[in-house]
Amino acid sequence: MIIIAHYRKKDALSRAIAGVIVIVTLYTISLYSACKLGTALFVSRPLLLPLFICGWILGIFMICVMLVIMKRVLFENGKALWMDKGKIIFLHKWNFSAASKDIMSITVGTYGRFNRTGIFLLTRDGTKKIVPIGSLEEPDSVVIARLKECALTS
Fold first, then answer.
1. What DSSP character marks residue 3?
2. Domain residue spans in the chain?
3. What is the pLDDT along the chain (154 residues), one digit of tens a residue?
4. In a designed cystine with 41, which of 36, 37, 81, 121 is the match (CB 3.0 to 4.6 A)?
5. What are phi and psi of 11, to 5 degrees?
6. Which CATH class is domain 79-153?
7. What's the predicted TM-score (pTM) here?
């Protein structure tokens, strides 16, 4: 396994803990409201039930992501981006992975509504994978050099 980039441990851990606290607080508020008003809330406003269920499912997914980040920071020395068995992996192999032999180009750019900086990996099938670099310890030029080295060696 080749580690390409690490999280800034303090920033990543504080953001993950804050995210878990916010989600748990929202869960508590939603449960309190639902228990206090009972089913009358969902009977009088039936469109709230799908929103309530989707919010809970998304919240559980987000808590899982936050726990993976905490695990990486606390137990795996903050690894964020690494190469293992010919695949470049970010966060978790189910979340983001690309075979290094399939990568055509590696560039830096911005993405999203707030123009966050990220590294774009363009694969042979036309898929564009984005690695956000806002919470990485290494500068983007170092990460790109390591990515290119890994893509060339495999």
1. E
2. 7-75, 79-153
3. 889 999 999 999 999 999 999 999 988 888 877 677 667 777 787 888 888 889 889 999 999 999 999 999 999 999 999 998 888 898 777 768 888 888 888 899 999 888 888 999 898 999 898 888 888 999 989 998 998 888 767 6
4. 37
5. -65, -50
6. mainly beta
7. 0.77
